[in-house]
Each structure stands twice: as C-alpha cells, then as structure tokens.
C-alpha cells in the first residue's frame, strides 16, 4: 500500500483552502429540512409524553428499547380483521391497483420470481406487511425459485421503489433492484420492521444510482435486521431524524456510506459488516433539524477496507457524504453520547475513527439553532475494540481534491509534512480539535473522548491526534506546513486524559438484545 500520497502539485492546489476548512453545509436529502413548526426535541428526552402514550402493546419485534407508545401510540391490528392478498409475477398491474386501495392490517404475499414495475409501490395505510419468498444473493437482478426481486430499471424518473407512510409496517424476504431514487423509503411512521431485505443497483460506482437503499426517516421504533445494501450513491443503510432504532446483523458494501445514522436519538448498531464503501459507518447531525442526535451505541461491527473512491454526485445531491475522503472507517460529526465497543477496524486508508465538529460543515453557529446549537461533538467512548492496522497511510486513496473534499486534502497536507518529522501515518482516532466552540487550548481532552482497553497492532505508538484544524489548517492554506504541523498534538493510548470511563448516565440501549 502506498504511503501518504502527496506532491508539490497538490500542495499548490491546497493554497486555495484559505480559511476554507468547512464543507458546504447541506442536507443529504430534501426531506432533511425540518417541518415548519415541527417540535424541538432535546437530547436525552423522548418526544412522547404521558398524555400521548396511548394503549398500544408496543413494537412487534423486541428492539431492546422500552416502548412508550410512540408518536402514534394508539394503533394496533389486534382484534381487527386481517386480510391477505397473494400475487405472482405478471400481476404487477393488479398489485399496483390493490396497494392504492389497501385497508389496514393487510398482508401482501409475493410469490417467488421477478416483478417489473414502471412506478413506485406506494403504500399509505397502517398495519401493512409485505413479504416475499427470499432476498436472493448479491448480484441477482431476477428472482428465482426461492427469491422475490422487484425491478425498477425502467420506472419513472425520480421515483422510489417502495414508498411507505404507515404505522406498523413490515417488509421482509425480497430484493429491490435498480430503484431510480431510494429503494425502500419509509417516512413519518412508527414501528417499522425491515428484515431479510436486499437493496441493490446493478452498476457499481455509478453516481446516477439511487441515493439510499434502506431509508427510514422521520420515524420512531425502527428495526433493520439481516438486510443487505449495495451500490447506493449515498448510503446503503440509513436511519435519519428518527427516535429508537436498531440496525443489526446486516451487510453494507460498495456504497458511498455503508451505514448512516443522522439526527437520530437512541440507536443501536449491532453486529453489522461495513466493507468496501467510501466510508463504513457515519454518525452525525446536520444543521437546521430539530432532532438533536444522541445516545448511539455501535457494537460488534466489522468496519474494514472502506477504500472505494467517492462516487456520490455533488451536482445531484450536494450531500455531506459526497465530501468524505475514501478510506474513512467511521466518522462522527456533531455527535454526542456515542459508544463504540467490540468493533473491528482495519485497512481504512484515511483513518479508522474521526470525531468532527459540525462547524466544519456549517461554521455559523446560529444556523444550528433548530437543534439547540447541536454542532458540538462530545462524550465519545471508544473501548474494547480491535484495531487491526493498515490504516491511515493513503489519505483519500491519493486522489486529493481541496475543492470536493477539503478535509481530506487538509489532512493529507498535514501528515505529508508530519511524515518528514517521523510520523508513521494518520493515527487510529483523529479529533479535529474544533469543539468546544471558542475554547482555550489549555485542556488536552475538553470534549471527553475516552479511548481505553482497545487492542492495537504490535508496536503502535501514538493512537490519538488532535489536529487543532482551524488554526493548523489556516497555516497550511498559506503554505506554512511546518507551522500547521506544530499545532497538532499526538498521544499514545495510555495518555491519562483519554483514559476515562465513558459518560454519565451510561447507555443502556440494547441491553436486552443478544448479539
């Protein structure tokens, strides 16, 4: 693997960075904008109240997160008429007609085979279950004797595959192939289950692919389990603007972002594999959204070899992930109360774990007002993980672009100079050093990053870096690489200030779930 890819030519282009260590503030989707007059939710509190708890018995699947009734709170199929509709390949038109007039508490069963649609399957009803015969294997664009594949290759432009608004929605045992936009989109719904589902686009590295594979948004109580997502031009598995979510035992490969948790409270990401993406796992808040993300547990995941060149379309989406350098294992941005434990990182060319301030994507704090000034990252507990090595020695795979991916270019610039001073590459955990806002540089670890009891490669020296990115980057942008590097700080794993015991209260999310 090549060492840090840096040349004098790219040094020259970096000089255009003057003060520009902020990415373009943007939303990953037009629906990330908050609803007018929408509620403001403080971190660490449930949107539900004693008056809206309802009488519902709770989610159909034990997520390990206590149920309080949710935002709907009063819907259940118990005691209601249960309807089953059966369809086979060739009956697509009849299926479309039926979904337009569904009654609540209906199960739609799809026989094995291939179903071809010219528009989205739109569901606007509560208590709907959609079940096929199996999700098939990666690369299968047609259904077989034991798989159901929904094909949207020739569907209308900008249409989703499944487009759902409805409480107690379940989809299982099928694949969605070549959706024009999002493969499975579920919005403003409570008690959502996606199980044994595959979303895929035929062409790899294609910026014209749909943006999201599994896409629950503005929802509550979401379970994604035993699913697969491939070739999404943004995120394969996404949970956004949501409260209470579990993503477990799933696979995300060949996407720009493998698994994405955005503006979400109370999420458990357990036992997943995120490999061969641009970035394996991301946890972040965006400005302008009223949900202040918090309380995210990431446990027992494999996040290795995420070195796919970034193929997101900046023109089409202007998404945050389009600006992430290839080779990023995990990044957290504007995130708080995040626990990372039992995970494996390795062979991520840029960095294994990055902790960033939201001010790097939107430097105006006032624009973070909707989420209670939620730009700051804090309380990150990294313990009991395995770092295999092979990471941090080819930032952005050497394809540096100060215009498209300025943070990657700045990182490469700093470490190219650092290599001349004996640095062996980017450390396993990099903190941008921006938060807390306006702080004095007197504390080593003011945002409480705890890095303890992790397994590291033999001979590891420094494992944590504080880049002091605003000050250092400003010097680098002026061509003062020595001055920029001098402002960075580099620490071994046993540095006392990072040898801390997490945060209080500790996370209990998923304590009832077995890996």
UniProtKB/TrEMBL annotation:
The keyword Signal applies. InterPro entries: Beta_helix, PbH1, Pectin_lyas_fold, Pectin_lyase_fold/virulence, SO_2930-like_dom. Residues 28-73 are annotated as: Disordered. The keyword Iron-sulfur does not apply. Residues 166-321 form the Right handed beta helix domain. Keywords: Signal. Residues 1-27 form the signal peptide. Residues 42-58 have a biased composition (Low complexity). PROSITE patterns: PROKAR_LIPOPROTEIN. SUPFAM superfamilies: Pectin lyase-like (SSF51126). This is Right handed beta helix domain-containing protein.
């Amino acid at each position: 693997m090549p060492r840090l890819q840096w040349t004098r030519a790219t040094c020259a282009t970096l000089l255009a960075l003057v003060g520009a260590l902020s990415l373009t503030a943007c939303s990953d989707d037009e629906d990330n904008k908050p609803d007018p007059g929408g509620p403001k939710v403080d971190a660490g509190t449930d949107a539900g109240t004693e008056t809206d708890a309802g009488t519902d018995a709770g989610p159909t699947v034990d997520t390990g997160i206590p149920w309080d009734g949710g935002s709907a709170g009063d819907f259940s199929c118990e005691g209601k008429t249960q309807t089953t509709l059966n369809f086979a390949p060739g009956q697509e038109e009849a299926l479309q007609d039926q979904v337009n007039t569904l009654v609540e508490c209906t199960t739609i069963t799809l026989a094995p085979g291939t179903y071809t649609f010219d528009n989205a399957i739109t569901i606007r009803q509560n208590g709907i279950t959609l079940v096929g015969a199996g999700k098939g294997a990666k690369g299968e664009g047609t259904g077989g004797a034991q798989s159901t594949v929904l094909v949207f290759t020739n569907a209308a432009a900008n249409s989703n595959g499944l487009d759902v608004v409805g409480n107690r929605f379940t989809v299982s045992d099928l694949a969605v192939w070549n959706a024009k936009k999002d493969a499975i989109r579920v919005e403003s719904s409570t008690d959502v289950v996606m199980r044994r589902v595959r979303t895929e686009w035929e062409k790899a590295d294609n910026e014209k692919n749909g943006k999201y594979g599994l896409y629950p948004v503005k929802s509550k109580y979401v379970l994604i389990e035993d699913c697969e997502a491939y070739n999404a031009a943004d995120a394969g598995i996404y949970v956004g603007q949501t409260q209470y979510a579990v993503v477990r035992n799933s696979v995300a490969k060949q996407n720009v972002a493998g698994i994405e948790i955005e503006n979400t409270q109370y999420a458990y990401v357990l036992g997943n594999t995120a490999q061969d993406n641009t970035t394996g796992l991301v946890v972040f808040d965006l400005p302008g959204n009223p949900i202040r993300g918090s309380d995210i547990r990431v446990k027992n995941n494999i996040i290795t070899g995420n070195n796919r060149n970034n193929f997101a379309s900046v023109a089409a989406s202007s998404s945050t992930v389009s600006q992430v350098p290839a080779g990023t294992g995990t990044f957290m941005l504007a995130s708080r109360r995040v626990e990372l434990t039992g995970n494996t990182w390795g062979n991520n060319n840029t960095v294994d774990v990055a902790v960033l301030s939201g001010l790097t994507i939107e430097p105006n704090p006032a624009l973070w007002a909707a989420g209670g000034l939620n730009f700051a990252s804090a309380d990150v507990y990294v313990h009991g993980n395995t770092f295999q090595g092979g990471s941090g020695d080819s930032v952005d795979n050497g394809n540096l672009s100060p215009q498209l991916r300025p943070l990657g270019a700045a990182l490469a610039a700093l470490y190219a100079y650092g290599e001349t001073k004996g640095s062996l590459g980017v450390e396993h955990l990099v903190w941008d050093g921006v938060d807390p806002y306006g702080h004095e540089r007197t504390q080593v670890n003011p945002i409480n990053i705890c890095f303890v009891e992790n397994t590291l490669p033999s001979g590891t020296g420094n494992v944590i870096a504080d880049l002091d990115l605003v000050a250092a980057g400003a010097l680098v942008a002026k061509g003062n690489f020595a001055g920029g590097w001098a402002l960075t700080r580099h620490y071994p794993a046993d540095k006392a200030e990072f040898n801390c015991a997490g945060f209080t209260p500790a996370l209990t999310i998923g304590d009832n779930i077995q890996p």
